[in-house]
């Protein structure tokens, strides 16, 4: 057999071996009988024969044994040729084991590994996605530089594969190829860019991992995918979540401004205390410039919150660090509960979590104070866990809880775990220094411990007492005497050294004891530890300087001993001290100052937490755990002073909405806000990325309300100083209810001459006109808020010069769906009006003719969310066109989107549930809507001049969804063209009815007529009356009813 | 990764010698519990977990959240437990090939692939005696050749086409009391941690919702990924499409405002005489606030000080053992009958000449109360949607001692 094997070796896979292999398998049962062959050489020979066999079972058995060898770390590389031949095996298990082998040894046997490549290339085209994926996985794991181009090609193809599973594997392959050949970086980045756009949750985690590894600095690739990633996050598998959250944390720190405001900082007093001047200044700046959180920033914080409930500790920790690093400080509190929960899991998880809590608890005590007792130590905890818990308890200690803690510490000091007991003593020392109220209690307690039986405890106490006494250089003669006595019994070097140092420092306070101590130690000098010897030398020197009469000889004796000591540090020190203290002719000027040098006031040591400076590492990272920068650690940048352009995150798909963002945002401030708050909440909780644009608009309105009211108050201050500039006159006829709402915000009410309003809900003619002369208007205020919010958007707005002279300016071309219909009819001449004066209301309508809308806001409202509509999404908006279905109807345009991957058929309006009098003209049924398709239809609704909701059902072939539309007041109006005179006349006729007016103060720069106009037309469908005076603007509208 | 002596490489091969750093650290540590989970070596980082007397060590080259690795290693150990019934060296030795196949599926280039046991079981079938016999005859394999359906769907935890003749859904509400009781018997710290473990054997794609009588009790909850978070946020109802088989539905903590009822008390008197080689040991256990239920399965474990040589005790009930090497005293008490309280009394032999122990040892107590959730949590109802059949439903309550420690 052995001769055969040699022959086999030479031929390396000749035909004759096949026969032999068969023979071998037939004679020997494959169950471990090979153990008989002792030498590896022979054993491998058998394996080779088995691999050559025709039987799958024999091959499988051989492969299993080979894998066993690999697992044990034995070298099986010489089997490479025999194994690689089976790469195309039909048996999937053999194939997989061959893969395992190949990946392990390909790097060592590059030429032979190439033999297998064609198999993988074939498998990459297999119809089974599992086979395609695993072929790619193995191909990319073969670390042979020569196949880099093949890998590249395979990755490119796989990244466009229909199966998300294969695409996921492509993302993994990117990292492997990158580590094999970093030259390919540029090409790989292209693929990453493509995969980042992938909407599959399966791919998201893997591609972000690849991004982090290959090009973590290319933050620009994330912009467009940011919102999508935020929204997908909840559905990504847990490992992907961790990676994405870490990446997004870094992203947020570069793209948003700091949410940490002055007010928040008050909470962490510790931080305040140590803040540098620069930071203080920075904060002052911040206070001046009110903070408004970017809606995308908010999106991230909100979408990660549910993940705190994850069962995966890594996910919880990732969210916790995200909140710690990017959330407003007032919101970060919610993470503590979840982190404390993790303390129930395994020892390793506890270890990491406790470390992170330790870092957090230094800066923000308040966060973990309620959980103080969760950090109490159990005798069964591992020592490292105990010490971490102790660390946290120390950080949390304050005047209120210190007595409870000290009682707890008393138990710990007695622990059988001496390392832990020693750490407790250190802790007590730290508490004593940080909380002055208890420092005496602590000191007394520590002194009691000096009589403890355990030497380690005593030694640690001595060291801590030394530090405490050093900090309070008061009369503690008794304690020092006690410690001097201890010197006879205690043997721990650190403790002995500490006592000696203490006596030396205080040698003038204990004049009788000190020389005696020196005498004793001189006797034992030679047998002392080096540490102690150094302190004996110090003590000698100090006594020589203060009490040379008694100690001169002793010191000289010690110096002599030190001179011949084995340790050169001690010899060195001896020489130094001798030169310094013993006056001789050679000694320089220094010896005059010897006393000052030795007995100088020494600064007390600072007892600090070892976690003090760890927070400059991102929490939850390996670097934080090790407290050193690990390879590949990515720094968390500081907040930028000014936020980079937020529009980079906008996605092209919703170009329309984007263009109109200002309108949407402005609208938020206005009366209709209230009506939509419900639907907006729905939007908020949605995961749709397609409407993130409108979402961000609405959100900002809600979240930043407070901030901006502060802002406007500031503006009012400014305008107060220049009252002249702030003058303006605006007249509005609008529904009383709408007005009232806006005034709720303003809190200022004032009656003026001609306005009226009737009770809110009724559908009679409710026209109120408020005329607040020489006062700023509510609109202008909200305008001012807006302006500060987004400069860039404002400029865009200002590009639409809407002056009163161009009241008929056609803005419809901004709107892709609506088309201008009517041209203005000229207003009647004043002379005619007199004739018509006696006519009733219906006649009035002939005087006032309907004009085209001045402005059409692009704000869309959600009718049916894609989540609730099983993939069918519907949005509606008011095009402000006269309705073609009926005079009294308001036209509504509905955009339907199919977000599923199947056709949605037969979309139509089902049952209607309308309040009394309301009418609705439905759109024609839509036969089918292709996947990702979108269609816009229009409807007409007669709301009967009320803001009541029109409810109806939107049906598809299979489902019915209840939806409703509630119109904002402004949309029920219709603009008319009339002259200033007519307007005044109409206004006069309305006097005597209810009216409301208010004063709005606005910054002068916001008071451009175009700005006010823009603001008003955003809210309500009104027209502009040409006015003779520059600073007076009139807006008018008539409702359908009035016609 | 290396399991004592087994290794599996991803990325490029790292020399086995890197483990020497780990063994060094292991020697330095007083006991296995104190081997640091994260060790830094000149070129690599070692992250390890210790479970079931095995170390799982992974070698890390670059920055990665340590919990990511730790959590993954625990998943690996869970999977072994799931596949082989135990996670021991012997089990791994016997199933090296399956272990390898599993690891291959679980991790790719340092990134976890499939960690859901449902998916793994479709990819690689767990070993059974029957199957290994069949396989050796037919030459078929344990490895599946199609992509598990769960892998691609948005409910990766459940496979399609599950069929049972008896459809059952069982829930175990298990609550554990963590407590530290001080010398005088007053409670230093106590809280209730609970889990709901489910065993679901339902055909098709059932959609379950579980509601509680008093959901407000749950202060902090962590969920299995199958639970719809939003339903919980808005309605406090657990709504989910369950995985097939056994799984942990939620774990929770009961809000700390509620006072925790402590079901047992311990009277103890342990004393060591000065300058004598013996001490007295006397403990008695009694019921307290047990809601009228029997307390059973009581075990007391005491780690005696090192100077204790032997113990000579008489229990009135149950049996005790003392291991003179580890110095661990275990008293298996059983049930408490209020008429006659169980006690354990006797003498402690100390090493002569050694100083008497500074501190009395803490008593770790285990117990179990059936049919009771100590927090008062109650399941209101379980509804099933999406399937037509009527399942058999059951809820069981158990209260146990968690980390229950009495300081003496």
From TrEMBL, chain A:
GO biological process: intracellular protein transport; vesicle-mediated transport
Subcellular location field: Cytoplasmic vesicle, Clathrin-coated vesicle membrane; Golgi apparatus
Record's compositionally biased regions (Polar residues): 1-11
Membrane topology annotation: Peripheral membrane protein
AP-3 complex subunit beta C-terminal domain mapped to chain residues: 801-948
Signal peptide range in chain numbering: none
Name of one Pfam family that matches: AP3B1_C_2
Keywords assigned by UniProt, alphabetized: Cytoplasmic vesicle, Golgi apparatus, Membrane, Phosphoprotein, Protein transport, Transport
Composition-biased stretches (Basic and acidic residues): 666-677, 738-753, 782-800
Acidic residues composition-biased segments: 678-717, 768-781
A single GO cellular-component term on record: clathrin-coated vesicle membrane
Chain residue ranges for the region called Disordered: 1-26, 663-800
Family: Belongs to the adaptor complexes large subunit family.
Role of this protein: Subunit of non-clathrin- and clathrin-associated adaptor protein complex 3 (AP-3) that plays a role in protein sorting in the late-Golgi/trans-Golgi network (TGN) and/or endosomes. The AP complexes mediate both the recruitment of clathrin to membranes and the recognition of sorting signals within the cytosolic tails of transmembrane cargo molecules. AP-3 appears to be involved in the sorting of a subset of transmembrane proteins targeted to lysosomes and lysosome-related organelles.
Name of the protein in its database record: AP-3 complex subunit beta
Organism of provenance: Bos taurus
Automatic annotation (TrEMBL), chain B:
Main location: Golgi
This protein's record includes keyword Protein transport: yes
GO BP: any one term: vesicle-mediated transport
Cross-referenced SUPFAM superfamilies: Second domain of Mu2 adaptin subunit (ap50) of ap2 adaptor (SSF49447), SNARE-like (SSF64356)
Keyword annotations of the record: Cytoplasmic vesicle, Golgi apparatus, Membrane, Protein transport, Transport
Coiled coil regions in record: none
Domain MHD positions: 166-407
Superkingdom per UniProt: Eukaryota
Location(s), subcellular: Golgi apparatus; Cytoplasmic vesicle membrane
Database matches in InterPro entries: Adaptor_comp_med_subunit (IPR050431), AP2_Mu_C_sf (IPR036168), AP_mu_sigma_su (IPR022775), Clathrin_mu (IPR001392), Clathrin_mu_CS (IPR018240), Longin-like_dom_sf (IPR011012), MHD (IPR028565)
Known function: Part of the AP-3 complex, an adaptor-related complex which is not clathrin-associated. The complex is associated with the Golgi region as well as more peripheral structures. It facilitates the budding of vesicles from the Golgi membrane and may be directly involved in trafficking to lysosomes.
Protein name: AP-3 complex subunit mu-1
Organism: Bos taurus
């Amino acid at each position: 057999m052995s001769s055969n094997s040699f022959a086999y070796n030479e031929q390396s896979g000749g035909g004759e071996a096949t026969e032999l292999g068969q023979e071998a398998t037939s004679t020997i049962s494959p169950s471990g009988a090979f153990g008989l062959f002792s030498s590896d050489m022979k054993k491998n020979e058998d394996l080779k024969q088995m691999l050559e066999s025709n039987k799958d079972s024999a091959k499988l058995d051989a492969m299993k044994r080979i894998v066993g060898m690999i697992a044990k770390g034995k070298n099986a590389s010489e089997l490479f040729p025999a194994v690689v031949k089976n790469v195309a095996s039909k048996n999937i298990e053999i194939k997989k084991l061959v893969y395992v082998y190949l990946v392990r040894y390909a790097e060592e046997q590059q030429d032979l590994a190439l033999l297998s490549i064609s198999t993988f290339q074939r498998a990459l085209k297999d119809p089974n996605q599992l086979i395609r994926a695993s072929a790619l996985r193995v191909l990319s794991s073969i670390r042979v530089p020569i196949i880099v181009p093949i890998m590249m090609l395979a990755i490119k193809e796989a990244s466009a594969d229909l199966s998300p599973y294969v695409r996921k594997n492509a993302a993994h392959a990117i990292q492997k190829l990158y580590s094999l050949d970093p030259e390919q970086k540029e090409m790989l980045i292209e693929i990453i860019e493509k995969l980042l756009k992938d909407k599959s949750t399966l791919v998201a985690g893997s591609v972000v991992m690849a991004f982090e590894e290959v090009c973590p600095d290319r933050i620009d690739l994330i912009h467009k995918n940011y919102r999508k990633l935020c929204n997908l996050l909840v559905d990504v598998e847990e490992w992907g979540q961790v990676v994405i959250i870490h990446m997004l944390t870094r992203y947020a720190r570069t793209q948003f401004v700091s949410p940490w405001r002055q007010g928040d900082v008050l909470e962490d007093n510790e931080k305040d205390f140590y803040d540098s001047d620069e930071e203080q200044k920075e904060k002052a700046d911040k206070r001046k410039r009110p903070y408004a959180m970017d809606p995308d920033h908010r999106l991230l914080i909100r979408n990660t919150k549910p993940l705190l409930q994850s069962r995966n500790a890594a996910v919880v920790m990732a969210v916790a660090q995200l909140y710690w690093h990017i959330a407003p400080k007032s919101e970060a509190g919610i993470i503590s509960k979840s982190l404390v929960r993790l303390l129930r899991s395994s020892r390793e998880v506890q270890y990491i979590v406790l470390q992170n809590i330790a870092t957090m608890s230094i800066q923000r005590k308040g966060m973990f104070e309620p959980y103080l007792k969760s950090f109490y130590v159990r005798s069964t905890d591992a020592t490292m866990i105990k010490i971490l818990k102790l660390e946290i308890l120390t950080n949390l200690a304050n005047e209120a809880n210190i007595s409870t803690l000290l009682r707890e510490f008393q138990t710990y000091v007695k622990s059988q775990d001496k390392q832990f007991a020693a750490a407790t003593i250190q802790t007590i020392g730290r508490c004593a220094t940080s909380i002055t109220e208890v420092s005496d209690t602590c000191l007394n307690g520590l002194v009691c411990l000096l009589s403890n039986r355990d030497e380690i405890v005593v030694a640690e106490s001595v060291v801590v007492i030394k530090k405490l006494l050093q900090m309070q250089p008061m009369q503690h003669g008794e304690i020092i005497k006690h410690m001097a006595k201890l010197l006879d019994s205690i043997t721990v070097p650190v403790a002995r050294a500490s006592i000696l140092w203490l006596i030396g420092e205080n040698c003038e306070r204990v004049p009788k004891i000190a020389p005696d101590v020196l005498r004793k130690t001189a006797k034992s000098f030679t047998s002392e530890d080096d540490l102690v010897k150094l302190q004996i030398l110090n003590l000698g020197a100090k006594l020589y300087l203060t009490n040379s009469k008694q100690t001169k000889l002793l010191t000289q004796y010690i110096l002599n001993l030190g001179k011949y000591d084995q340790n050169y540090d001690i010899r060195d020190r001896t020489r130094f001290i001798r030169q310094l203290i013993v006056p001789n002719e050679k000694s320089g000027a220094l010896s005059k100052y010897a006393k000052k040098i030795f007995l100088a006031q020494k600064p007390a040591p600072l007892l600090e937490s070892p976690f003090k400076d760890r927070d400059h590492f991102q929490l939850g990272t390996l670097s934080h755990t090790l407290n050193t920068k690990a390879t590949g650690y990515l720094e968390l940048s500081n907040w930028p002073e000014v936020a980079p352009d937020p529009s980079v995150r906008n996605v092209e798909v919703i170009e329309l909405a984007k263009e109109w963002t200002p309108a949407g945002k402005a609208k938020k401030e206005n009366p209709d806000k209230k009506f939509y708050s419900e639907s907006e909440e729905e939007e908020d909780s949605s995961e749709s990325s397609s409407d993130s644009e409108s979402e961000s608009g609405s959100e900002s309105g809600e979240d930043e309300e407070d901030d901006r009211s502060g802002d406007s108050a500031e503006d009012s201050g400014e305008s107060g100083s220049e009252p002249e500039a702030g003058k303006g006159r605006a007249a509005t006829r609008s529904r009383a209810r709408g007005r009232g709402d806006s005034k709720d915000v303003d809190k200022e009410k004032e009656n003026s001459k001609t306005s009226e309003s009737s009770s809110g809900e009724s559908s009679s003619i409710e026209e109120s006109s408020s005329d607040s002369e020489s006062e700023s208007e509510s609109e202008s205020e909200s305008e001012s808020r807006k302006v500060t919010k987004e400069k860039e958007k404002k400029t865009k707005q200002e590009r639409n010069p809407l002056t009163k002279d161009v009241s008929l300016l056609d803005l419809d071309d901004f709107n892709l769906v609506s088309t201008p219909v009517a041209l203005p009819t000229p207003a009647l001449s004043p002379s005619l009006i007199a004739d018509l004066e006696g006519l009733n209301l219906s006649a009035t309508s002939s005087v006032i003719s309907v004009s085209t809308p001045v402005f059409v806001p692009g704000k869309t409202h959600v009718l049916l969310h894609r989540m609730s509509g099983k993939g069918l999404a519907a949005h509606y908006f008011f095009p402000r066109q006269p309705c073609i279905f009926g005079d009294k109807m308001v036209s509504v345009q509905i955009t339907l989107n199919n977000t599923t991957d199947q056709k949605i058929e037969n979309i139509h309006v089902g049952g209607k549930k309308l309040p009394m009098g309301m009418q609705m003209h439905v759109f024609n049924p839509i036969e089918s809507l292709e996947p990702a398709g979108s269609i816009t239809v229009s409807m007409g609704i007669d709301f009967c001049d009320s803001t009541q909701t029109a409810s109806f059902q939107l049906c598809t072939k299979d489902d019915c969804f209840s939806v409703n539309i509630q119109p904002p007041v402004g949309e029920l109006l219709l603009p008319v063209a009339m002259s200033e005179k007519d307007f005044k006349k109409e206004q006069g006729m309305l006097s005597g009815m209810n009216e409301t007016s208010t004063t709005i103060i606005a910054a002068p720069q916001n008071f451009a007529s175009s700005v006010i106009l823009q603001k008003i037309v955003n809210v309500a469908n009104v027209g502009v009356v040409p006015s003779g005076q520059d600073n007076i603007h009139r807006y008018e509208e008539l409702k359908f009813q009035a016609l | 990764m290396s399991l004592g002596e087994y290794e599996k490489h991803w990325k490029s091969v790292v020399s086995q010698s890197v483990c020497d750093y780990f063994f060094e650290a292991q020697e330095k540590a007083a006991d296995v519990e104190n081997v640091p989970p994260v060790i830094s070596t000149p070129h690599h980082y070692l992250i390890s977990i210790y479970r079931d007397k095995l170390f799982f060590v992974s070698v890390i080259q670059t920055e990665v959240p340590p919990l990511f690795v730790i959590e993954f290693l625990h998943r690996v150990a869970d999977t072994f437990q799931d596949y082989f019934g135990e996670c021991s060296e012997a089990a791994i030795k016997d199933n090296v090939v399956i272990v390898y196949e599993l690891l291959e599926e679980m991790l790719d280039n340092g990134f976890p692939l499939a960690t859901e046991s449902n998916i793994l079981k479709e990819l690689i079938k767990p070993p059974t005696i029957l199957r290994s016999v069949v396989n050796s005859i037919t030459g078929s394999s344990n490895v599946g050749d199609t992509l598990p359906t769960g892998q691609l769907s948005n409910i990766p935890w459940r496979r399609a086409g599950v069929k049972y003749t008896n459809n059952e859904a069982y829930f175990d509400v298990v609550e554990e009391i963590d407590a530290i009781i001080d010398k005088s018997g007053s409670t230093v710290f106590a809280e209730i941690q609970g889990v709901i473990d489910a065993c679901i054997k339902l055909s098709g794609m059932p959609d379950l919702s579980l509601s509680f009588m008093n959901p407000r009790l749950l202060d902090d909850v962590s969920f299995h990924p199958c639970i719809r978070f939003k339903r919980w946020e808005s309605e406090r109802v657990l709504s989910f499409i369950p995985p097939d088989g056994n799984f942990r539905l939620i774990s929770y903590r009961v809000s700390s405002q509620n006072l925790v009822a402590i079901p047992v008390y311990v009277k103890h008197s342990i004393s060591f005489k000065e300058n004598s080689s013996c001490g007295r040991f006397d403990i008695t256990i009694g019921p307290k606030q047990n809601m009228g239920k029997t307390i059973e399965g009581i075990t007391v474990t005491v780690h005696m000080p090192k100077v204790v040589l032997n113990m000579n005790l008489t229990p009135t009930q149950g049996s005790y053992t003392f291991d003179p090497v580890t110095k661990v005293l275990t008293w298996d008490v059983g049930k408490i009958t209020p008429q006659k309280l169980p006690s354990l009394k006797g003498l402690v032999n100390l090493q002569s000449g050694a100083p008497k122990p500074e501190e009395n040892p803490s008593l770790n107590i285990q117990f179990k109360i059936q049919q009771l959730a100590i927090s008062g949590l109650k399941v209101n109802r379980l509804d099933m949607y999406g399937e037509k059949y009527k399942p058999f439903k059951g809820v069981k309550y158990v209260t146990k001692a968690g980390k229950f420690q009495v300081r003496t």
